[in-house]
Write a structure and sequence with these properties.
The protein is an alpha+beta fold. The chain contains four helices and six strands. The strands form two sheets. A four-stranded antiparallel beta sheet has the order 1-6-5-4. It has a two-stranded antiparallel sheet with strand order 2-3. The longest helix is centred in the middle third of the chain and has 27 residues. The protein is globular and about 55 Å long.
Amino acid sequence: MEPNTKGAATFYQYKLIKKITITAFLLRVYITLPFICLVLESVFLSWLSVLFMIIAGPVMLWIQYVISRSVLLISGHPIAKRWRLSLRLPWPGYMPDQYINYGIFRTVQLHNLWIGLCIAALFIVWAPPAFTASLAVCHLWLLLPRLYALLRFNSVAKDGMLKFNAADASYYAQ
C-alpha cells in the first residue's frame, strides 16, 4: 500500500467543518421553557397540568426511545454500543454515543418528531387536553436541542459525521 503523501483524506481522517456551541444563556433558556409552558398550561387549561407534565416527561422519553430504536432497527443500522439513553442537558433522550452519520441522525430525529407528535395527538381522544398539551410540550422540549443542531447543520453537505459532546455538536467531513 502506498503512503498518503498528498494529504488526501482517508477513511479515518475527518476535518471539522462546523461546530455549534451551546452557550450558558441558551442552556438557561432551554431549562426555563418547560416552566413557562407549565404556567401557561395551568392558567389556560387546567391546574392539573403540573401533574400531567410530571407524567408526560417520562412517557415521552420512553416513546422517543421506542421510535428511535425502531427506526434504527428497521433501517438496518447497528445500534449496539453506539446509542445510549442520556438524561444530561442539553441532549436528553436517546442519543448517539459515538460519531454518527448525519443522514442517519437526521432520519431518526425527523421520524421521532412526526411520529411522536402523532402519538401525542392520539391522546386527545382519551385524555384531558391538558395532558395532551403536556405530552406535546415535553416531546418538543426533548427534541429541541437536536432539531436546533439539525437546523444549524442544514447548510453543510449531507454525507458527514456528527459528534455530540456535553456542550457542543460538531460536524465532520472527509
